[in-house]
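G., the chain you wanted modeled:
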Amino acid sequence: MKSLIKLYRGYVGTFSVLTTVNFFIMGIGFFTRVKIANVLGREIFGELTYALAIGSFVNVFVLFGIDKTLVRDLVHLPEKFEQLAVGSLIVRALMFFLIVVPVMLLWHLRYPQDISLGALLIIFSFGISPLHLQAVFDVLGKIELHAFFNLTQRSIYYCLIWSLIIFLPTFFNLNYIGIVSLLTAILFFVVQFWWFYYNVNVKNFFVNSVSQVLVFLYKKNVLVFLTSMFGLVLGYANQIILKKMCGSGELGGYGVTWQLVSLANILIMQVVRIGRPKTAEITNAGVDGKHRAKFLFKYSLVMLSLGAFIGLPAVLFPQYIMALVFDPQYLSSANILRIMGFYVIVISIEPVTSQYIIFSGMERLYFASSFIGGALNLFLCMLFIPSLAGYGAALALLIAQLCALLIMVVGIYISLQPQFCCEN
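Predicted structure as tokens:
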């Protein structure tokens, strides 16, 4: 009993640290994004939203699905801890420097009106951020330390942004945001790698097993990588299509409502970080179906409560929130905000299902849900956006995400049935 109490105290302590740090980041971050939107205006904020959408694709491309599988591999294969940790970093570095950097530079040089210098720097910052070592910190029980590094990086970013907004607002533009984003992303990586290098023995890895680990990671992650890319089509393709069809101004209106999703994701992902190692344990072969189902139910209930806490106010009071937070130029986006409130509630459950599916080795199910959801989203965008603009983009997003989530839930239910039959 004492060990159980100690275990739960550890979870509560970790959650408290993460909640404190991320409530600070979340609060300052939200108000910073609101201020940026109000200072830049609909058109320029639309360009920023466009850069962030492309950056999100770059982020997932560089990650190569490793963010979804590395905790599982480190927990299931502790004898290969150092090899997997360093090998995953090498894979991501190769993806960024050999593919992302030259492609984005060529895009900028060929179409500068589409990808400005500021947008390019923001996209590069999204390409560097996947070089993080979050999974290593999580498995080693150093979640609080990683949270402190994250807090330091975000604090520097916000200080630099607010300094110019307050003292030299006429010089605040997309280029400045890009410079600050890139420099702070590099700083975050350097601090993490410095700790990792001096606390994890990596020398033998470099000598003996580079190629073997790279091949292992490629085989293990290629399907998850493709799934993640389709998942991103499900989440961010709407913004790119909306900009191409309706212009930056309409995307700017959509972009301010997306801040609710960003706010929700920050808090959701911190709870997910705590649940991820436990999900990896519950998916070991020796755990029976009843324990798995009980864990999934409790985990889903916690996440759904969290999603409702953030999403319901937007569903019930969208016009009031828009008038209170944003300039009058964004008030017409209140109907989009209501849809985003429903969307936040839906996506709060998605990490539970996707974690379980990946850790259980059911990557094909995850791929099928993301592929169908992404394809449906593209179809609905083409159908809704020409007549409904930003509202149509949000509606397409919600319907497609519901479809993808339903596929995963049904797949998990079916997978648990044979285990229940065997136990009975």
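The first helix runs from residue 2 to 63.

Shout if anything looks off.
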